[in-house]
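Researcher: Let's run the pair from yesterday's discussion. Sequence first, then tokens, for each.
Model: Starting with the first of the pair.
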Amino acid sequence: MSVQQPAEPIVFRSTFGIVLTVVMWAIAAAGIVASVLTGAGAVPVALLGALAWFVWLAYWRPCVVTDARGVVLRNLLSDVDIPFDAIEDVDTRYSLQVRADGRVWSAWGAPAPGGASAIRSGTRRPRAGDLESWRDTPRAVREAGSARAGDAVTTASGAPATVIRRELERRERHGIRRDETARVTVTRHPVLTAVSAVVLVLAAAAVLLGG
């Protein structure tokens, strides 16, 4: 009997995004409380509220969710639902990127390493000092010389990429036939767009009227 992908969803969220959101929300909350207690007016409250909203939207909401059926890329204002049967390839050059339905879908919440790691992100074999980071990656990544910095399982892009690649390998190994009718589904979130617009307008109005 083949090993199945866990039934419970696995959520991958950038550690940097989590830390940044928690810190900025703490700062915003403290600032709002201080503004109310000192009678500083609506401007700091509106600006700090807007900051808290957009930090959540840009750094907490985006994530990658995998389950037995496929992967969901939760981006800022939309969700991309990709069944495993529709996945053609996975890459991590700039972020987790899933090729399906003839195009590439990027995950905002799973960026590849930046800075010096990004400069070195051309194809390379894992170095001896990096072995722990590469230990759980699929064999094709470890041995074929095609590993990127963003493929390491300790990175925001590499962790979900490893899960997806392992499932694709399992399906190929056990001869599981693809459902050729599987398609990518994109769900827009107009409520998030509307709330973002309202928050911007309120913040701008507070600054203009308060000034």
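Model: Moving on to the second of the pair.
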Amino acid sequence: MALHLLCKDPASPNNGSPTLYYDDETDSYLLQSWKVHDPDRLASVAIPDHETIVEFPARLLMLFPSPESMPQRFASQSETIAP
């Protein structure tokens, strides 16, 4: 398994987060971002115990790969993160 770095928020301090990854083993995406702690916001969403809510800025959306792009196509061009 390898995680492939797809995009990072360029306006983030220290270029750390939010960050989008692709997991080539599970064929899914992982979003590293800020935890939502505001109880009023969390109360407005039904969240199962095994899930969480994260927040990311709208500016990150323009960096997401297009839906018609296959992750394997650009995985070779992106940074790979080994476990």
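Researcher: Give me one sentence on the second I can quote.
Model: The beta strands are 3-8, 19-23, 28-32, 34-35, 54-55, 80-81.
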